[in-house]
Give the backbone structure.
Amino acid sequence: MRQRIVHHGARRRRERRRRAVWVGGELLVTVGVVLLLLVVHQLWWTNREARQGARREVEALEREWERGGGADPGSALQGSREPAGSQEDSGSGGGRDRRADVPYSTIPDLSRAYAVLRIPRLHLRVPVAEGVGKVSVLNKGYVGHYPGTGQPGGVGNFALAGHRNTHGEPFRYVNRLVRGDAVQVETRGAVYTYAVDRTLCQTSARDAGVIGPVPRSALYPSYGYAEPGHYLTLTTCTPEYTSRYRLVVWGKLVSARTR
């Protein structure tokens, strides 16, 4: 009877291949789990943390304003001159609206929250901090004020930036704003109300003209303004989940009310 010959070398090679396939499969599963956790962290956890932090900051600002009372230090809605086209509130009760050429004039510390942005259509209420650094401002769920641009209520352009995705994504739905929508900026001493006026759906991230004192796109000159005024600019990334281009929404000041 012929005996079967077992080649131990071939058996060892097959065993090594099986182990390699098994280890490779485990590594792929591990990498997949890690990537899934990273996605969950970016899309859910950063939003949760940033929104909670932003809400706490808004509450802290409001408590501070209630304790301090009075107008913004160094500013004051002291003039009564009105931006062109504005009208005083003729309703009864409460403080009447007064238009002011004197904006919030205290220079904020970098990365410090000093105002609250409220957009009723988007059910949005977030802090405004000085600067547009990702770690120090935007990743906290705040909206950032471009240094060197105007302040709330003043002649010029009060220009803001915010994340569209992750880290609280406060500007996720700014593309839904339409002409006439109200955007309010609250400070210690005043509430400034702007009305959405124009939208630039896409422009280069380097299009600095959109945040100029008289905002006007350098790439699309038909988008923007030609005369000085009291402007608000909201900028965010587009398309979603990229940072290649910028979406821009502009508004004009329609009222300024003392708190």
User: Anything to note?
Assistant: The longest strand covers residues 190-204. The chain is about 25% helix and 25% strand. The radius of gyration is 27 Å.
